[in-house]
């Protein structure tokens, strides 16, 4: 197995519940709110508040998380570098979807306007 395949496999097995608190900490440390984080997650995945909490309590993997999600049709508009990779060039669909989420959380933490994060401008 190549290192890229190892990386994709590790991403697939990570649980959303394990990473979620890091998202919360990242955005709150920069003055944004948990509600704004949920708005961003909801935009990308289609999960409402109750469904998002269920994903967390079910301790599902990112693979299951994105299988259950209804990815926003404008997700392809998320571009840029995250974790050293251009999100639009990632060839593994699941890893790309996880990096989409990472990029949105990063943009929120960096203080971007919600309209820009949600690609409505």
Automatic annotation (TrEMBL):
InterPro entries: SP1917_dom_sf, UCP033199
A Pfam family this chain is assigned to: DUF2200
Protein name: DUF2200 domain-containing protein
Gene source species: Gimesia chilikensis
Lineage: Bacteria, Pseudomonadati, Planctomycetota, Planctomycetia, Planctomycetales
């Amino acid at each position: 197995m190549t290192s890229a395949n190892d990386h994709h496999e590790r991403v697939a097995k990570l649980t959303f519940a394990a990473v979620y608190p890091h998202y919360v900490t990242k955005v709150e440390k920069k003055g944004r709110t948990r509600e704004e984080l949920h708005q961003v997650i909801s935009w990308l995945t289609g999960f409402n508040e109750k469904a998002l909490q269920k994903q967390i309590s079910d301790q599902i993997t990112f693979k299951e998380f994105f299988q259950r999600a209804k990815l926003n049709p404008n997700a392809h508009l998320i571009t840029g570098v995250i974790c050293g990779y251009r999100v639009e060039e990632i060839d593994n669909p699941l890893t790309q979807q996880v990096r989409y989420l990472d990029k949105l959380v990063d943009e929120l933490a960096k203080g971007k306007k919600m309209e820009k994060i949600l690609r409505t401008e």
